Amino acid sequence: MDHSPSSNAPSDHMNGSNKKPRTAATSIWSHYTDRRSISDTHWEVKCLNCDTCYKIKKDGSTGTSTLHKHHRQCQDKVKPDGSPLSKHTSHHGSASTSSSGGGGFRLSHDYTQHEAPGSPSNHPSTSSQPLAAYPPTLQDYLFGAAQQQSHANDPLQQGQASASALGLSQTNGYDLAASMADAAHFANNFNARHDGQGGVVGEVVDVMVLNPNSSEVITSNLAQLLEPNRAWGVKHSYRTGPPSAPPSINDPPTSILSAQTTFDDLRRTSALSDKSAVLVCCFSAHPLVPMIRHEYPHIPCMHILDTAINHAMSCGASTFGIITTGKAMVPDIDAGVRSYLGGVSDRYKGCVATGLGVLELGDPNSKERVESKIKEDSARLALEKGAEAIILGCAGMAGMEPLVRQGIQEAGGTLEKVWVIDGAKAGVQILTGLARSQYRVV
């Protein structure tokens, strides 16, 4: 490959600009590969010493100052035996960013291999391990870096913002891999510093997702719903009520029984001693919430009725309604809505009961009936009652958003102004924010 300045330097007939063409005096080009077009406006070049990639504008207006700066820093990089780095033998696996002086942001290191820190230079090693083998916080950083890998051609501003969100430094020769390991080590120190009093130190938040009945299948469904959207630096601790709790909550008596048995179990096991927040996954004005707030006033606690209404009122919909299971729960739900809103509101279009049982929602033998009722009553709520936001009024309905939308479409409605709200999804987001904000200090 000809790396002479005359062959690498952009020229007027290539870039269409009126700028003076590069000449042999611009010797910086001898340190980089031939240009590779990556867009209508940008070339990409790669350092022959360390494989760091840069974007430069085709019109020649930006980029060369960055190349000069990189060359000054890169020429000091050597192999462990003291010899210079050569092309395709990058010491750090080809992880790169630009300097802040211009150029572009590119991530070329393959973090999808989930490399672990621990080599003598504190850089990730080249061995691969399953993602689950790493501590939870490091898993978050590795996942985030893999996400960046898939968006390697994002504009500079997006790339820098994404790297900043990961807590990754753009220094030390632009070694993103080493920065990721440092950030993970820093985050793991936060894990060790959790204050154990319901608040958090740094970014670690442990939200208990509490199913107050004794049915493990509902807890499992909640985990499948919530884990894909779990935020970085957040842990979800899933817990099911004790065996003495009712298998489902279908009316006020089972609600009260589940609250008492679950509360006693929480106190006996000290299960809340290290939690940042608690989400009670029962769609009602469940009495367990005020019980926890009274006993543990420093821990934010909400049930999914309140969190669902919060998002329904905030998402842009002008009205909302609720689809739930049995008719016995409707008066309690209506009372909970009035309590949250502080009275009667025209924005609330009512609660529709499907007549389904909580455990029936997850029964494969009842699949056809469940799908039919969810679609039918969702359409009635949206098209007849005028609800723009449809709230799933039971923890057992987790993941049924597609059925709601399908029912509305099959009944002749459009999805242009339809929001489908799940209180559990809303709850972990709201409680994570409350825990991090630490409005109350004890």
UniProtKB/TrEMBL annotation:
Pfam families: Asp_Glu_race. InterPro entries: Asp/Glu/hydantoin_racemase (IPR015942), Hydantoin_racemase-like (IPR052186), Iso_Racemase_Enz_sf (IPR053714). Transmembrane segments: none annotated. Gene3D superfamilies: 3.40.50.12500. One of its GO terms (molecular function) is amino-acid racemase activity. Residues 1-23, 61-134 are annotated as: Disordered. Residues 119-130 have a biased composition (Polar residues). Belongs to the HyuE racemase family. PANTHER family: PROTEIN DCG1 (PTHR28047). This is Uncharacterized protein. It comes from Pseudomicrostroma glucosiphilum.
